[in-house]
Amino acid sequence: MARSSSEIPKTYDHRAVEDRWYGEWERSGAFEADPDPEREPYCIVLPPPNVTGALHMGHALNGAIQDTLVRRARMKGYEALWLPGTDHASIALQNVVERKLMREEGKTRWDLGREAFLERCWEFALDARSTILGQLKRLGASVDWRRLRFTMDERYVDAVLTAFVELYNQGLIYRGNRITNWCPRDRSAISDLEVNYEEVEGKLYGIRYPFADGKGPGPDGKPYVQVFSTRPETMLGDVALVVHPGDGRYTGLVGRRVRVPFVEREIGVFADEYVDPEFGTGVLKVTPAHDPNDFEIGRRLGLEPVNVMNPDGTINENGGPFRGLSREEARRAVVERLEKEGLLGEVRDYAFRVGHCDRCGTVIEPWLSEQWWVSMRELAGPAIEALREERIRVYPDSWRRETIRWLENIHDWNVSRQLWWGHRIPVWYGPEGEVVASKEPPGEGWRQDPDILDTWFSSALWPFATLGWPERTGDLEYFYPTSLLSTAREIMYLWVARMIMMGLRFTGEVPFRKVNVHSIVLASDGTKMSKSKGNVIDPLDLFEEYGTDAVRFGLLYQSSTQDFAYSHERASMGRSFVTKLWNAMRFILGYPEPSGEGGEPSLADRWILSAFSRLCRDYDAFLEECEFSEAMRRIYDFAWHEFADWYIEIAKVAPSGATPRVLREVFLGILRLLHPAMPFATEEMASVLGERELLARQRFPEHDPSLEDPEAERAMERTKRAVSAVRSFRAETGLDGELRGRVPEGVEAGVYAALSGVEPADSPGGGARATLTAGDVVVELFLTEEMRRLEVERLRKEISRVEGEVERARRKLANAGFVERAPSEVVGREREKLETNSRLLETLERRLSEYLP
Questions:
Q1: What are the Cα distances from residue 564, in Å, to 485, 630, 753?
Q2: Quick one: which of 451, 458, 416 has its CA closest to 85?
Q3: What's residue 15's pLDDT?
């Protein structure tokens, strides 16, 4: 039963509502979904946040997007599953635990040993996981908590190991030496996504390589070849120098040999088109073990790499006299020795981008190491075909095309990590040198590979492993392929593309039908949010200040295909929107209850029903196409302006017998449409209005063609323009008294008279006329002599003021000194003022002429 307006608070209090309603949704099983042959499935798998993480603005936006779509699907009659889960985040969690261990006990993971360290990781993971899950509840996430998955769960681990073994047995996983992103602190390869590139101020060092072939100086008459490098310590691993084959400066240099200082290695000079003749001296040193481009050059030239670094970044035995030094120490020592021996050329200041480990900040070393690799070409082919055929729709479509291009140029994937926390690689080495991939030890005496799998390998299986794969479960048969994935563009390649490849490989189906690539939420100054910059916004603080619904609405309102700087104004706008709806609800509570049929709807009733039906069509279409900003704008404009500002005002002064029913019907419809985006406030308002069924379970409003009434909409639009014209006239003239005038053609007379305060009349009765235009609507008002006199007086004063402004601007612009010396923007502003005030003066003089004899 609905409560009276006197029984409810005058303002909406989100703190008193949100926890209560989330608990009620959970208790009622509103979010639970199971295979139902009578219903069509709808499924989204939550992109698993790191178990170490906390809710950030990207999570808040993406969570709001997914929750909106899932709640909408549920209300549209789908068996809608939003499946939650978390990722074990191998390198992130291991870093946190290692730092905690050192800080609290002064120990390293090697002091504890692998098993004891993993126990610490499990303790931390289980404790930290509750934080992010609790924050998802604060967001209002309508996930089925019965189905919570963790990438280290026993069944999920089995899926990961199964996938690895199958790929290995199919010849798609192999062991090989390649350049990787190596973190010397973690002593592990890391993914491209875990490398942050920062601009640093460094040096470009000229290194001189003396000729070793005894054939005299080079083409420039010098007894050496000079090469510029930002990392002189890597010269210890040089195996060649290369020049561009078309560089005429070095004709005759190709084929000669030079000496690498300090390690006394002789290397040759080769030609390769990769070299940029414009950089430095146009000669490039080739260090295949420490640069990915050099590695490819070395492979083309058939050169053996020389690795000069240990896993911790210190110089190894191949570094000659610099053995045991750190990279930084070796750089200083090498430069000093080069200078001492006359082999240091020009040293220039140089700014360049350097990769740093995202987790610990250590400078990344491109490093040659033996890793496990997935051969990607065979996996990429079906994914390219699926994207080309648009079996997966991507919003915006440009990201579908970009992903195809990436897949067409894909490289093999390094899936091994030299860490302890994660999925241990299921490869076993036998006592006789045998190598077998198996989920279980093949027998006694077999040793398991010490590496773990890249976290992205396990998460690539997420859409189907969470539903029971490798078993053909009922969930997998019913909910897979999933309906949609919403994600940020930064992981389109590292995660989304890999899910497509793995889904097609292991299930024969694409993993999802749609991909929504959402905006990035930037700091208020338009830069990326970063803890180091101190510009991170905590969404939980926003939830507390503005309410979760307001924050969700503001994020969706700003979300489009473009990144956006977060605006507190949008959260404030969302809060004001909730307040507007709350006040509308209070008005409806105090309005007479609908009785019986209530009589025939008036033109205004027909207009709002028709406009609401169009809203249902447009709003639903925008959500279907992932145009969240447009959807929020559309429903905001309807609810605030058309319903609250116009129809409620009409209901106050010109109701029909049907108005109580229509008023309540349309408002509840607005709440149902808004519920997926703003679940807490809408559920509370529906309850206050006496709705017995949870809004979360009610039917999503649909477009009803039978309610379309173009005649009523045209008439009411004309009526609104006419009323607005009169209100503007009153505001301009200050005339508050009763006005008389003709009813404009094609408007609803009763509504026009009630809202404008204009008494219908056919003739001026000897007074003056005021003619107002609003588009194609002409409003004629009849003024008394006193009104005419006051308006003439006001217009003359205003004309005098504006004439002064016009004259002042003209004098300034006629002054040649001002025009020549003042900044161009100042002169431009004066010209704009002159033009604006000249136009205003014409309007005022024309208006005055209407009131003069």
A1: 21, 15, 45
A2: 458
A3: 96
Residue 532 pLDDT:
65
Give 142-197 as a DSSP string. Answer: ---GGG-EETTSHHHHHHHHHHHHHHHHTT-EEEEEEEEEEETTTTEEE-GGGEEE
Write out the two tokens for 119. 């126990």
Instruction: Name beta bridge partners: 228.
Output: 206
Question: Please, are residues 580 and 679 in contact by the beta-carbon 8 Å criterion?
Answer: no
| CA distance linking residue 596 with residue 354, whole number of Å | 75
Token pair listed for 560: 């489009």
Residue 474 in contact with residue 110, Cβ under 8 Å?
A: no
Length of the chain, in residues: 853
Mapped onto helix, strand or coil, the DSSP state of residue 88 is coil
Q: Mention every residue, 6+ apart, whose C-beta is less than 8 A from residue 270.
A: 240, 241, 242, 243, 254, 286, 301
Q: Which of 88, 146, 699 is nearest to 475 (CA)?
A: 146
Which parts of the chain have pLDDT scores under 70? 1-6, 532, 595-597, 765-767, 853
187 closest CA partner among 313, 360, 328, 370: 313
Strand ranges, E, within 22-103: 41-45, 79-83, 85-86
d(CA 56, CA 49): 10
* Residues near 737 by beta carbon (within 8 Å), at least 6 away in sequence: 787
531 is in an annotated binding site: yes
For 56, phi then psi, to 5°, come to: -115, 180
- Give the pLDDT of residue 271: 92
Please name the helix (run of DSSP H) or strand (run of DSSP E) that holds residue 178, with its range, or none.
strand 173-183
d(CA 215, CA 334): 27
CA torsion sign for 185, 87, 403, 407 is positive
Which tokens sit at 357?
Answer: 């480990």
Identity at 585, one-letter amino acid code: M
Q: What is the pLDDT of residue 5?
A: 59
SS3 per-residue string spanning 544-603:
HHHCHHHHHHHHHHHCCCCCEECCHHHHHHHHHHHHHHHHHHHHHHHCCCCCCCCCCCCH
Using the Cα atoms of residue 573, residue 579, residue 585 and residue 588 in order, give the sign of their dihedral: negative
Q: Return the structure tokens found at 446.
A: 């077999």
- Return the pLDDT at 3: 61
| CA gap 40, 78 in Å, rounded | 5
Per-residue pLDDT tens over the stretch 347-369 = 998 888 888 888 788 888 888 99
For the chain, the straight-line distance linking the first and the last C-alpha, in angstroms and rounded, comes to 64
What kind and span of H or E run contains 686? helix 679-688
pTM above 0.85, yes or no: yes
Q: In 3D, which of 156, 143, 122 has the Cα closest to residue 455? A: 156
- What the block records as the tokens of 795 is 């217009």
Angular region, 417: left φ>0, alpha ψ -120 to 50, beta rest: beta
Tell me which DSSP letter residue 230 carries: S
pLDDT score for 4:
60
Q: What is the DSSP letter of 641?
A: I
pLDDT digits (tens, 9 = 90+) for 83-133: 999 999 998 899 899 999 999 999 999 999 999 999 999 999 998 888 888
CB neighbours (10 Å) of residue 214?
6
Rounded-to-integer distance, Cα 786 and Cα 127, Å = 79
- Bridge-based pairing of strands 521-522 and 564-565 is parallel
Q: Which residues pair with 43 in a beta bridge?
A: 81
CB-neighbour burial class of residue 73 (10 A; exposed 0-12, middle 13-18, buried 19+): buried
Q: CA 453 from chain center: how many Å?
A: 27
Provide φ and ψ at 615, rounded to 5°: -60, -45
For residues 110 and 119, what is the distance between their CA atoms, to the nearest angstrom?
Answer: 14
For the chain, list the domains and their CATH numbers: 188-366 (3.90.740.10), 540-708 (1.10.730.10), 784-853 (1.10.287)
Neighbours of 112 (CB within 10 A): 18
